Amino acid sequence: MNIKRIFGTLLTVLGIGGLIYAAVLFAGVSGGTQAIKEVIIYGVLGIIFFISGIGLVKTVKDA
């Protein structure tokens, strides 16, 4: 298995984890600005990791 494909899978899993964590934080937000900042940060990082991981997996060709 190609190392880039493994890295892409790892990024995808981290992205999914970040998005799930952001959703859990969002469900428990009581309205404080600190909690909203955490949701935004984890959500954006999760989206970036997820999209870059999927893109890396899709573009790497098997030898």
Relative helix content:
over 70%
Got a strand count?
0
Structural classification: mainly alpha
**H/E series:** HH
The overall pLDDT, averaged over residues, is 89
Number of helices in the DSSP assignment: 2
Low-confidence segments, given as residue ranges, are none
Computed over alpha carbons, the radius of gyration is: 14 Å
| Approximate shape | rod-shaped
User: In this structure, how is the largest beta sheet organized?
Assistant: none
Strand content: under 5%
Number of domains: 1
- Distance from N terminus to C terminus (CA atoms, Å) equals 9 Å
Structure characterization notes:
Helices cover 83% and strands 0% of the residues. The chain has 63 residues and is mainly alpha-helical. The protein has one domain (3-59). Helix 1 (3-27) packs antiparallel against helix 2. The model has no long low-confidence stretch (mean pLDDT 89).
Give me some keywords for this one.
single chain; 63 residues; 0% strand
Q: How would you sum up this structure in a few lines?
A:
With 63 residues, the protein is an all-alpha fold. It has helices spanning 3-27, 33-59.
Record the SSE blueprint:
Elements: H1 3-27, H2 33-59
Helix pairs in contact: 1-2
